[in-house]
Amino acid sequence: MSFFEKSLNTLELPRVLKMLSDEAVCESAKAEALELRPSQEAAEVERWIKETSAAKKMMVVKGSPSFSGLKDVRSALQRADLGGSLNTVELLDIAGVLRCARLVKSYIGDDKLDRSCIDHLFSALRANKFLEEKIGTSIVGEDEIADAASPELSNIRRKMRAAAARAREALNKIISSPAYAKALQEPIITMRSDRYVVPVKAGSKGAVPGLVHDISATGATLFIEPMGAVKANNELRELAAKEKLEIERILAELSAECASHREDIEEDFLLLTRLDFIFAKAKLSYKLNCMPAELSDRAIVLRRARHPLLDQAKAVPIDLELGDSFDTLVITGPNTGGKTVSLKTIGLLAVMNQCGLHVPAADGSRLPVFSNILADIGDEQSIEQSLSTFSAHMTNIVNILDKCDDRSLLLFDELGAGTDPTEGAALAISIIEYARKMGSVIAATTHYAELKVYATNEKGVQNASCEFDVETLRPTYRLLVGIPGKSNAFAISRRLGLGEHIIDDAKARIGTESASFEATIEKLEQTRLMLEREREEAAKALRNAEENQRRSAKLRAELEVRLDKSDLKAKREAQRIIEDARRQAEETFRELDDMRRKADKEEDARAVNEARSRMRRRLNQAEEELRPDNSPKLTEEKSSRPVKAGDMVIIKSMNMEAEVISVSKDRVLSLRAGIMNVNVKEDEVLLLEGSAARKKKKQQQSSAPVTGLRTEQIAGEIDLRGMESIEAVLTAERYLDSAVMNKLKTVSIIHGKGTGALRAAIHQMLKRNKLVKSFRLGRFGEGESGVTIVELK
């Protein structure tokens, strides 16, 4: 056994390969798993890892393909190719390979998306459904050929059934006849030498004429074939011989057909074995919760790595980096603290990676491809070979140093142990220095304080330690890179009850330099614990902040959705109100036209005034829908005294001032509002008393965003600059209504230049407004494109 193979055994690769073998289905794939060895070619390792990843991805989507029934049929095919005839078991095994090939080939289907690096293995399968079905229909069991295997066999077996029926019929007559009842031992039909017979008492053999085929062990019973059944039995023997010949012919024919497809079947078997092996690696990856490691040039980066042979639910993961900023890691700490497990984890994961396996570590782990992974781990002292512990270790180290180079990973357990501590420590440092000069990546465990100092002072060498909880006297198995370990001998002894005076005496016997170094390590450990607690608190605060941020983002998104819905609802409601107001305005304009015609014909003034009043109420009803909640509400207010002629009042429904012309006996008021005369009831107006009251009412009217329709003289222009489009359109429409009421023929609407959005909205309103005869933009001196000149009908 080479030292490389010995190192693989030391790192317990065979146990991992046994786990891999257990995941495979066919024996050939199991054997391939057990014989797997790490590759030293980066391209091959990368291809193997990609195959494992592709199989694992397929299993997520479709589950694992079935390799049931896959057996090695190469020797049987070789014999068939030489002209030999295969038995039923061998032929059924060949049919099993063909069936497995057909099912596995259909596993990936015809989907051309998400092509993987193992698709070519599926595509290369040459399933032969015809031969598979032919074997399956011809052979129904390991010892049975189907009647349908050939027409001749079917005919022979039909005749055999008929002959057997005749023989049984002849024998049934004998066992059911009263004449033979006393001679028969039992009234049954049985078989001897493939012939139908009946059991006859030895003393009555003459009573049943026939041929004796057998005698019972006691001699009391003779098994006689009656003469009446001899002919049928002879026919059965002849047909059985023909059946045997026909079966041999069928098996030879099937064997020849298998031989003619030997190459295809053998190729299918090899492809299926390869796929079974690849999917076994994917199953092991799932079982151990593994991830593919990225390939690096030299650096080992392990994130939450676990030893694959430990209970994955209980194994304490380790994090480390080696081979980048430093090439040597010196691990210290108490016994049973996890130093050797950490060392084996590094080596075994590197070996698994080069075998194309996923490694039990978190995403982001990286491993190089080494030419040699050499380990000296464990005690190999031998009485037969006169090797002490030190000699056994040194023999291994000599082999390691002979083979190491710049692509080697060297693992030393208890380097320099088994001899004088001073000499052992010096030797250990010299061995590490030699291996470093050769360019190797090194990980070593030790108890020597000299190596701790060496790792602290030497560039490219880093300390690490396995954490130990002194309070519980138990190791935590956590690997702490950058901090040397303490033996904790005094602390452990104190916890176990050793006298304080003995411990103090032991401390006094330690050299000053060594004691100072141990004290420094203790301070570093305390600082580390404090920083770790602070880091955990900071991480917890960060997680809380991130959670609060996620909640805030979610709440903000929900509020934005609600606001968008509210805004949309408000816009729809405003659009509905505008449309209602527009319809009211159109009806009002029709009534205005009727009023003008009636006025031209000098009809009754009272009727015209009543029509005007109705029109005014409808207009103000439409305006009321547009008025905000904070607009003046006069409907609930009452006059302080009865109204009389000459008083000034406000018409509540119109929010408009009017003068009382007269008061009828039934308290109906005749009012003049601008150029209009209106008749209303006394409770529909509000009396204005004194100049202060008049001023207050005017202030209320001027403060309302939407005011009542005015009948007093208005200006020949309106300024809409600074308004939103909807507000400007409504204001312009009311202004045009008032302009028509005041018999203006041409007005100017000032909307400004700006972006042109307000001008476009005004022009759209003017196009559909029935009061507008025409409109145009202002000319030079009129305001140009910032003003629209409107001609009214």
Describe the structure.
Helices cover 51% and strands 16% of the residues. The chain has 793 residues and is α/β, with parallel strands linked by helices. α2 packs across α11 and α8 packs antiparallel against α10. About 4% of the residues have low confidence.
Strand percent estimate: 15-25%
Question: What integer value in Å does the Rg equal?
Answer: 54 Å
Major sheet description: 6 strands, mixed
Helical region count?
22
Residue stretches low in confidence (pLDDT < 50, at least 5 long) are: 381-386, 628-632, 695-712
The span between the termini is: 114 Å
List strands and helices in order, with pairings.
Elements: H1 3-10, H2 13-23, H3 27-34, H4 42-62, H5 74-81, H6 88-105, H7 119-123, H8 129-138, E1 139-141, E2 144-145, H9 151-175, E3 190-192, E4 195-201, E5 210-215, E6 221-226, H10 227-260, H11 262-287, E7 294-296, E8 300-305, E9 318-322, E10 328-332, H12 339-354, E11 366-368, E12 372-376, H13 389-403, E13 408-412, H14 421-437, E14 441-445, H15 449-457, E15 461-469, E16 474-481, H16 489-495, H17 500-509, H18 512-600, H19 605-626, E17 648-651, E18 656-663, E19 668-673, E20 676-681, E21 685-688, H20 690-703, E22 717-719, H21 725-741, E23 746-750, H22 757-768, E24 772-777, E25 787-792
Parallel strand pairs: 7-11, 10-14, 10-15, 12-13, 13-14, 22-23
Antiparallel strand pairs: 1-2, 3-4, 4-6, 5-6, 8-9, 15-16, 17-18, 17-21, 18-19, 19-20, 23-25, 24-25
